[in-house]
Amino acid sequence: MTDLRYADFAREADGVSPSYAEFSRAVAADGELLALIDTLPERSRQPNLLFGAVRLLGGPVSSWQAFRSFTLARWDAVAPEMRGRITQTNEAGRCAALLPLLASLPQPLALLEVGASAGLCLYPDRYAYRYGGQTVGSGVPLLDCDFVGEMSFLPTRLPEVVWRAGIDLNPLDVRSASDLAWLEALIWPEQEHRRARLRAAASIVAADPPLLVRGDLVEELPALAASAPADATLVVFHTSVLYLVPEARRQAFVSVVRSLPGHWISNEASHVLPFPGMPEPPAAHNVLALDGRPVAWTRGHGQALTVFPR
């Protein structure tokens, strides 16, 4: 099972991170490494956790052999990092996929992110966006997104956000050097633009930190949602989070979020949050949906958005 997980991740990394694509295929065929990884709890065996933990400890990504040698030699240090952490990729670029929906809702907005990590995606009103030749907003970071679909789908202005909050099992604080180091370790080696983007977004968040609540997404959601301003449109959203949640708990979350006032934006893999009648998605794409209605394919880091015909 673990070998298939790494083989799947290799396909996701193809064309995006050549080193991680190579390493994932190598791990999938490496009995010694797989045996070590399988000593960890099932939720701790993810490729991003392995690669992030090794990089956090200063491990090399210059070659597979160097990476493998370091990982085997330092397994006593790598394993606790994988066991004690969760994947918390906090990619501000994902806001580019969310922005058209956020801008289309009644303003102002009260944003509540599930699986918020450090909360970088709670600031869609502070970033600038470029969809091909169309730019929205100004300043940095500038988030580029390849766009396919009717241009009328794209916003002409940024949303107005008056409240922002998040839930996470382990909220991160970008003002903490160690938390920021973990976020940087999760960025794929070849993607220096994402590292620069992380730092730019982190400076915005550090100057005006959001409310982040530690806890379970089902247990904490109703009370936190109830604390949002009554005169703002509540928007509960999440991106590439529910795959970390067991199926039964996932369904419980869907039931809770559907019972809340306001709107629900999901951006998850189609096998994680399925929609009846949906065609097979392109490789490594999520389904963007508003209130349970699919509207587009997206790439995981917000780098592409393909809108379904209306």
Summarize this structure as a short list of keywords or feature phrases.
310 residues, nine-stranded mixed beta sheet, alpha/beta
Give a description of the structure.
By secondary structure, the chain is α/β, with parallel strands linked by helices. It has two domains: 2-84, no CATH class; 92-307, Rossmann fold, CATH 3.40.50. The chain has eleven helices and twelve strands. The chain has helices at 2-13, 18-28, 31-37, 47-56, 64-73, 75-84, 95-104, 177-185, 192-207, 217-226, 247-259; strands at residues 109-114, 128-131, 134-136, 142-144, 146-148, 161-168, 211-214, 233-239, 263-269, 285-290, 293-299, 304-307. It has a nine-stranded mixed β-sheet with strand order 5-12-11-10-9-8-1-6-7, sandwiched between helices. A three-stranded mixed β-sheet has the order 3-2-4, with no helix packed on it. Strand 2 and strand 3 (134-136) form a beta hairpin.
